[in-house]
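(Fold this chain)
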Amino acid sequence: MSVKASIVSNIVKKEIRRIREDPATRIPELIDWGHGLDKSGNNEEMFRSLERIAKDTSNNWNVMIRNILNNIQPSFMEKFVANFAVNAFFASASKRERIMKREGCNIPSVILMDPTTSCNLHCTGCWAADYRKSSNMDYATLDRIITEGKKLGIYFYLYSGGEPLVRSEDILHLARRHHDCLFLSFTNGILVDEHFVKESYKLGNIMLAISIEGYEEETDMRRGTGTYKKVLAAMDMLKSHGVPFGFSTCYHHYNAKVVGSDEWLDFMVQQGCYFGWYFTYMPLGQDARLDLLATPDDREYMYHQVRKSRESRPIFLIDFWNDGEFVKGCIAGGRTYLHINADGDVEPCAFIHYSSANIHDMSLLEALKQPLFKEYARNQPFNENMLRPCPLLDNPGKLQSMVEQSGAHSTQLPVEENVADLTAKCRDVAGAWEERAALLWNKEL
């Protein structure tokens, strides 16, 4: 850690201790301090919003901050916030920008990778279901990706799978070795145990997003009988140890009205979740069920519910599709993130199983320069309506064109999926969403 980063880290830790002692006074003072450092004025609107939140004790974000201060172990919070402020935010942006100009390619701020395709569940419609179940990315390769990533200014790493906690010891060891990075693992929660929770608490730089599809009926429908109760037990364990966590939910035609409801979100807050990731079902693989695809009514419902809940509930929510307007469209292909599967294929997105680069054959930087990623950069955003961000689900012709232009191959195994066949599954739902999305984008709904 540089001297400058060390100073900032110590300041962050000191301020967290002072905030816990007197949040009503210290939070507004800290915001004023940060506001004064923003000489460019680029974050003026953000600081004004933070000032309003800090002064209103009834504001849901104010409530969430106080919940964190009261319920999360101080040592965990100090480490996590210091990492976020110093590396993932403070050091990352300027470093990546310099390298992007020099190398002529996108450098993401986040890497999602799969340690394994092995899983203890077999969920209906899982996007990873067709990957080989014996694939694993060895520890040395995972470590190399993170090491190379840090040199590019990437300090935030996500794990998916398969079930990442099949490799729990490697995940803990990587978090320990790369103590200057942030790690988040998407998990079905079944393998969460006391050892993993206690080690996560000690490390302070790893969190879990636990998959849940609604209440018992909705969760067990896709994930198997008994899964729901085990998920709640994992949440209880994390909550009792003061380790922050959130939920990850795939919404589809049969559960959208449940997982977007006020009652269910209140339940997630009650369970102890501080954040939630919403994804929507994607028809990947030869046996994909098209009846699970979210309809325009489903997506519109989630659009309104998530935005309403952000103004009323003490939880941070992300809707991977409907939040396109806040991130200027699709974030994949290295623009903000990429996906590396357990075979080492460097893909644009967890839901786009095509690639022209493998991490075993080249460096991370070389993989970022692959033809498919160049096509992504050339075509993004894929639509002027940012509520239609995806090149597959919303603009299927875009994905087919990019794959064909770049010569990328399918990584969907054991049966490779022709891009024309994949995009054909999405044409009807994309056309149905186009009209509804236009009304929402123009604020007519």
Summary: Residues 74-103 form the longest helix (30 residues).
